[in-house]
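Q: Given only this backbone (182 positions), what sequence would you predict?
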C-alpha cells in the first residue's frame, strides 16, 4: 500500500501528516453512531465553507469515535451531521478530508468491506485500486492525496457516505457476519 500527500501545485512532495492527534489531555468525546435504516445516512451532505470551533470539535469527536469503534474511516453523516467531512486512518495516522473529491482513479480491487453504521457485517465490493483525491484540511487549505489498496477503498467508501450512499447497495452477493469470515 502506498500513501502520499502533497500540496496542490506545490513542488514539495514529502509526505506529511495532515493532522496532529495530540489532544490527549482533553477528554474523549464519542458521538452516537447512526445505523443503517436511519434516513440521515441517505442524504446528500453540504460543503463546509469555513472552519468554525464547532466544526473543529466535530472533527475531533469523529476521530475519537472512529478510534473507539476500531474503524478505519468515519463520515460526518454517520454521527448525524450532514456536512462533507470524513476521517480515515488505515494505520498510518489520521487524515481529515473536508469537501473531498476523487480526481483520478484506476485499476480494480474486489474484497470485503464493512461499515460502522452496519455493525458486524461485511460484503464484497469492487472499487478502484488507485484513487487520487483533493480536499481541504483542518486549516481549509487544499491538499491532494493518493492511495492504493485499503486507503483507496476507504476514500471511496467514506466519500460515498457524503452522497448518501452505503456500501451495502454495491455488495456482490450477500452480506456475511464477521465470524463466518474468521
Ligand atoms: Zn461506512
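A: Predicted residues:
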Amino acid at each position: 500500500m502506498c500513501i502520499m500527500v502533497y500540496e496542490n501545485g506545490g513542488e514539495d512532495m514529502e509526505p506529511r501528516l495532515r493532522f496532529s492527534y495530540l489532544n490527549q489531555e482533553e477528554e474523549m468525546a464519542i458521538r452516537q453512531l447512526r445505523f443503517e435504516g436511519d434516513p440521515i445516512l441517505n442524504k446528500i451532505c453540504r460543503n463546509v465553507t469555513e472552519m468554525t470551533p464547532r466544526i473543529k470539535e466535530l472533527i475531533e469527536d469523529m476521530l475519537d469515535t472512529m478510534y473507539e469503534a476500531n474503524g478505519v474511516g468515519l463520515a460526518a453523516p454517520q454521527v448525524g451531521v450532514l456536512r462533507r467531512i470524513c476521517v480515515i486512518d488505515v494505520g498510518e495516522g489520521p487524515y481529515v478530508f473536508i469537501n473531498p473529491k476523487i480526481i483520478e482513479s484506476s485499476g480494480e480491487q474486489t474484497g470485503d468491506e464493512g461499515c460502522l453504521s452496519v455493525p458486524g457485517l461485511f460484503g464484497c465490493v469492487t472499487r478502484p485500486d488507485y484513487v487520487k483525491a483533493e480536499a481541504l484540511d483542518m486549516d481549509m487549505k487544499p491538499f491532494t492525496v493518493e492511495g492504493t489498496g485499503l486507503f483507496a477503498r476507504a476514500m471511496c467508501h467514506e466519500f460515498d457516505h457524503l452522497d448518501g450512499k452505503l456500501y451495502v447497495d454495491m455488495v456482490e452477493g450477500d452480506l456475511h457476519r464477521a465470524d463466518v469470515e474468521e
